[in-house]
Specification:
The chain has ten helices and 16 strands. By secondary structure, it is an alpha+beta fold. α8 packs antiparallel against α9.
Length: 360
C-alpha cells in the first residue's frame, strides 16, 4: 500500500517505526508547529471489522490528531478490501464531522493501474503477487546538454536520448525528431543503433529507426544537435516515438538561453515532457528570424540561379540552405544532394559542378 501511495501522492514519505509511529504510516506535508500534514494510516483488515479492529482505527486517528509534531489536515484510512455494508455504516457514522477519508481495495486497484504506479507493479511482480500483468514498453526522453570547446565554433551539443521505462523489451522503435532552427549543421545520428531510410534524407524533422531492441531500463542516444551563436532561442525540441507494443507518444521541451548557460563542465539533463511544445514552436517559426543573405559572387549567383530554374522544389537537388558552418567561413551556404533526377542537377553538371564542390 505504501508503494502505491508514494507513486500516486506526490511528495509523500514513509515513517520509520521507532518507539511508535505517532499514528503515521505515510504522510504528505511538513512537520512542525506551522506545518500541515495529510496522514495515511494502513490497516490490514481483509475481513469483517469487529470491535477490536474498530478500536484500532479510533486509536490510530486519535494518536495522529494529538501528535505534537504536526497539525493534522486530513486522515486517510487505507484498507485492502471493499467494505461490507455494516462496516460502511459504522465508518460513515464515526467519521461524521471529522476530516477523514477512506481508501479501500477498489481505490488501491485503480491507483495501481495508473501509469505512475509502474514501479509498484514491478515490485509486486518481483514478490510473486499474482494477477499483475506486464504493461509493455514505456518511454521517457532527455535532452543531454554539453558545453563544447570554443575552438570548434560551437557553443553546446544536445544529445537526444530515450529510455525504456516499461517492463517489456521494446521492438521496432521509430522516432521523429524536430527542432528549432540552429543556423549550422545539425549533427549526426547514432549510426550504431539508429538508421535513416535510404530514400529519406530530411534533416529536420529527422526520422530514424532503431537497429536493435531496447530492453527494460535501457537508454539509447539517438542523435546530436549542434548549438552555435546563430541558433534561435528559446530552443524547442519535439519527439515522436512509435514501437510495436506501445502506443505512439509525443514529448518535447523548450530550452531557454539561460538554461543553456547553466551548463557547466558536467552535462545537464533536461527531461522531455509528454505533449511538449507546439509543433510551431518545435519547427522554429520565429517572426524575428534573420533573413539569409543573397549570394554576392558571380559563381554563387550562377549556382543558385541554376537550382531555382527548376519549378519543382523537390527536384532542385537542394536539401537545406545554411548560413555557413561555424568556425569555417569558407563553407558554402548550400547542402546539395547528388540524386539522379531533376533538371537543375543536369544544368550544374553541364557547368562543371557536382555535389562535392557545392559543399566546399
Amino acid at each position: 500500500m505504501a508503494s502505491i501511495l508514494r507513486c500516486t501522492v506526490p511528495g509523500s514519505r514513509r515513517v520509520m517505526v521507532y518507539r511508535g509511529d505517532g499514528g503515521v504510516d505515510v504522510f504528505n506535508g511538513t512537520y512542525g508547529a506551522d506545518g500541515g500534514v495529510d496522514v495515511y494510516q494502513i490497516k490490514y483488515f481483509p475481513g469483517q471489522w469487529e470491535e477490536t479492529q474498530k478500536q484500532q482505527i479510533r486509536d490510530s486517528y486519535e494518536t495522529a490528531r494529538e501528535n505534537p509534531d504536526f497539525k493534522l489536515k486530513t486522515w486517510f484510512l487505507c484498507v485492502p478490501t471493499r467494505l461490507t455494508k455494516t462496516n460502511i455504516r459504522w465508518f460513515d457514522e464515526w467519521r461524521n464531522g471529522k476530516e477523514i477519508e477512506l481508501i479501500d481495495g477498489d481505490d488501491l486497484t485503480d491507483r495501481l493501474n495508473q501509469e505512475e504506479c509502474k514501479q509498484a507493479r514491478q515490485q509486486l511482480r518481483e514478490w510473486g503477487v499474482g494477477g499483475i500483468q506486464p504493461t509493455g514498453a514505456r518511454f521517457s526522453a532527455n535532452a543531454v546538454v554539453r558545453r563544447c570547446e570554443p575552438a570548434r565554433g560551437l557553443l553546446f551539443g544536445v544529445v537526444i536520448q530515450i529510455i525504456n521505462e516499461g517492463d517489456r523489451t521494446a521492438k521496432g522503435i521509430r522516432v521523429s525528431i524536430e527542432h528549432s532552427e540552429i543556423g549550422c549543421v545539425a549533427g549526426g545520428h547514432n549510426g550504431d543503433h539508429w538508421e535513416q531510410r535510404g530514400s529519406d534524407r530530411t534533416v529536420n524533422p529527422r526520422r530514424l529507426s532503431c537497429r536493435t531492441d531496447l530492453h527494460r531500463q535501457e537508454p539509447s542516444a539517438i542523435m546530436l544537435i549542434n548549438i552555435c551563436e546563430r541558433t534561435e532561442f528559446p530552443f524547442s525540441i519535439k519527439l515522436k516515438i512509435w514501437s510495436e507494443d506501445a502506443n505512439p507518444v509525443e514529448m518535447g521541451c523548450v530550452i531557454t538561453k539561460e538554461d543553456f548557460e547553466k551548463t557547466t563542465s558536467r552535462p545537464q539533463f533536461i527531461p522531455l515532457v509528454l505533449g511538449g511544445p507546439s509543433m510551431a514552436a518545435a519547427t522554429g517559426t520565429n517572426p524575428t528570424r534573420p533573413k539569409i543573405e543573397q549570394p554576392i559572387t558571380q559563381a554563387a549567383k550562377e549556382i543558385l540561379g541554376a537550382i531555382l530554374k527548376n519549378p519543382n522544389v523537390k527536384e532542385r537537388g537542394l536539401t537545406e540552405i545554411l548560413a555557413g558552418a561555424p568556425g569555417n567561413n569558407l563553407d558554402a551556404a548550400f547542402v546539395a544532394t547528388t540524386t539522379s533526377h531533376g533538371g537543375a542537377e543536369c544544368t550544374l553538371h553541364e557547368r562543371g559542378y557536382s555535389g562535392r564542390p557545392l559543399m566546399n
